[in-house]
Design goal:
TIM Barrel, 289 residues, alpha/beta, 7-stranded parallel sheet, two-stranded antiparallel ribbon, globular
C-alpha cells in the first residue's frame, strides 16, 4: 500500500466515526451552563462594578480583551448610555439583568431606567444582585405594579461576613443582604437565592435553612468556576483562600452537600454540581423552575 494511504476497512471505520465525533462536539458546545441556565438572554448597561469581587469573571475577560487597562479601572463603572435608552423588545423567555455588573447605588438611576424599559416591553426579568438596601427599596417601590414579572435573585455565598468581605470586598454584608431579601419578600415580590459561588461549603446547608422561608422560587447552589483564571494569588493569604475554596468543592464535598439537600423542595443545582452528581443538563436555555 502506498505511503499515506489507508485500507478500505480503515477508511470506512474513520468515516463512520465522524457522526459520533460531530455529535459529541455539538453536545459539548450546546450544554446549558452559566446565565443560560436562568435566562434566554442577558442585559447590562455598565462596564465595571464597585463590588470588586476577587473571582469576577467579567473583569478577568475585560482585562484579557483589553476593554480595561487595569483592575482598578473596573472599580469606576462607566454607564453605557446607548444600553440605557435602548428600546427593548419582548423576549421569548426570562431576561437576566444584570450579569456582568451589579445594581449598586452609584448606577441605580440608569439601572432602573433599563429595568423599566425591559418591563414595559412585556418581559419577565430576573434581577440578580448582591443587594444594597437602598437599591432594593427603590426597585420595590418603583416597580410594585410589575411584581408578577420580576424575580429577585440575591447572591449570598456565605453567612460569615469575614468570608464575604474577603471575596467580595465592597459588596454588602450578610445582614444587609438578608434585610433586602426580607423586604422584597414582604413586599410580595418573587424571591430566590444564588449560592454561586459557594464561599463557605461547610455552611451551605445551614445557609439554605436560614433563607428558605423567605424564598418563593429556588435556592441555586454552584461551585466557583475557573478560579485561578479570574483571580491570581499575590500573597500567602490569597493562596490559602483559593485552596480552601478548592477543598470545599471537591467531588466528595459536593456529594455530601447534595445528599444533605437533594430532597429540599427549594434547592436547585447549577451545572457545575450537576456534572459531579450525574444530573442531566437543561434541555434548553432559561428553564428556571
Amino acid at each position: 500500500m502506498a505511503a499515506g494511504l489507508v485500507s478500505v476497512p480503515t477508511f470506512v471505520a474513520m468515516m463512520s466515526a465522524i457522526p459520533v465525533f460531530l455529535s459529541e462536539c455539538v453536545m459539548k458546545k450546546s450544554r446549558i451552563t452559566g446565565t443560560r441556565e436562568w435566562s434566554v438572554g442577558t442585559v447590562n448597561c455598565c462596564k465595571g462594578c464597585t463590588h470588586n469581587c476577587r473571582y469576577c469573571w467579567a473583569r478577568a475577560q475585560a482585562l484579557r480583551f483589553k476593554w480595561i487597562q487595569s483592575p482598578e479601572q473596573w472599580l469606576l463603572p462607566q454607564v453605557r448610555q446607548h444600553e440605557v435608552t435602548k428600546k427593548r423588545k419582548k423576549a421569548k423567555g426570562t431576561i437576566m439583568f444584570p450579569s456582568t455588573h451589579d445594581i449598586t447605588p452609584e448606577v441605580l438611576v440608569p439601572c432602573t431606567r433599563v429595568l423599566r424599559n425591559l418591563l414595559e416591553a412585556g418581559n419577565r426579568v430576573l434581577v440578580v444582585s448582591k443587594p444594597h438596601w437602598e437599591t432594593i427599596q427603590t426597585i420595590c417601590a418603583e416597580f410594585a405594579d410589575y411584581r408578577p414579572r420580576i424575580l429577585f435573585r440575591f447572591t449570598i455565598g456565605a453567612e460569615d461576613n469575614e468570608i464575604l468581605s474577603y471575596w467580595e470586598p465592597n459588596a454588602p454584608g450578610f445582614e444587609e443582604r438578608l434585610a433586602c431579601l426580607q423586604h422584597a419578600h414582604g413586599e410580595g415580590f418573587q424571591t430566590s437565592i444564588s449560592v454561586e459561588p459557594m464561599l463557605d461549603s461547610a455552611g451551605v446547608v445551614d445557609l439554605v435553612h436560614t433563607l428558605a422561608s423567605l424564598v418563593t422560587d429556588s435556592i441555586w447552589i454552584g461551585k466557583m468556576n475557573r478560579i485561578r483564571h479570574a483571580f491570581k494569588a499575590v500573597s500567602d493569604k490569597d493562596e490559602a483562600a483559593i485552596q480552601e475554596i478548592q477543598q470545599g468543592q471537591t467531588d466528595a464535598r459536593i456529594w455530601a452537600i447534595y445528599d444533605a439537600l437533594k430532597y429540599h423542595p427549594k434547592v436547585s443545582w447549577k451545572d457545575s454540581v450537576k456534572k459531579v452528581v450525574g444530573i442531566a443538563p437543561l434541555a434548553q436555555p432559561g428553564l428556571d423552575k
